[in-house]
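Consider the following input, taken from an annotated entry for Sensor protein LytS (Streptococcus ictaluri 707-05).
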Amino acid sequence: MVSLFLPLLERVGLIILLANLLMISPFYKGLMYERSSTKVSWILILTFSIFAIISNFTGVLVGQELGLDSGGLLNLSAHTSIANTRTLTIGMSGLIGGPFVGFFVGLISGLVRWLQGGSAPYTYFISSLLIGLLSGLVGKLSLKNNRYPQVWQGSLCGALMEIVQMLCILCFIPNKAQAWSLIQLIALPMVFVNALGTGIFLSIILGTLRQEESTKAIQTHDVLELANTTLPFFRQGLTEESAQKAALEIKKFMRVSAVSVTNRHSILAHVGAASDHHIPTKEIITDLSKQVIESGEIHVVRQKSQIGCSHPDCPLEAAIVVPLFVRKKVVGSFKLYFTDAESLTYVEEQLASGLGNIFSS
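Applying the prediction step yields:
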């Protein structure tokens, strides 16, 4: 039993590393704020299913004599089981995405585990479904309030989900003596490791989001100050002079590569990267700006091709384009450009939207 702790901790470390890498990504940070949408649910299902499958194939074999084995994990013999972190990933999927996500992650990872074979593999299919649903119901309580479980709640849930798996082993493996011996060997290490891993996984998510919120609060203060500085310029009307002054102030306050202001037809000001061809007094040259002015909706793009600049050496890779309204009619736009798409985060999107509301009248 003790010999299982270190190998299982190594497997948990792999999953935690993957979780950390995901939360570095602005894309996944944004998803964590929109968990209730169907699109995000399917992305979470795909992500956690991959994690769970990795867990299946990086487990620790427990052989016929109920000792650690070094055999393969693709086609298990009839008297072989796996001690792995599948329960952790299924449980986390439910805690984050609710029962819908938890069920499908449990279904997919359970099927993969069944196909691996071993001793009564259907047992792990059943336990995977139950764990996905039960953890999802716990996650739903937090999801309704648009928050996450606390770390201790996640750890407790992780331990309980592993206990559910132990009960399934006891109930569904025909050879009760073998089932009980297996539980005696793996229960304590797996309950402990699952609780620890779930807590760490949740703490990574919560820590990342708290940092994001802290950054947002700081930037909100800056934006309010920025609004006080730039609003008088926009109140003068969309002229080249007022647009240039406003663009300079926005560029100074926000961490963007360039700022541009347009009316419905031409560029009034452009400050920062790509100033050599985004030239004031010229007609609007990006398809993206034209789309925003026509639709009256904010557009956020993270690919150079989506900006639609015809200049071959344009360094701009991402943009937020916000329409400007006067009496509910679009009169122009202001644009925040980024030369590195990774710099465009959820925080910048929200701040740009807020600025657009302030600048419009």
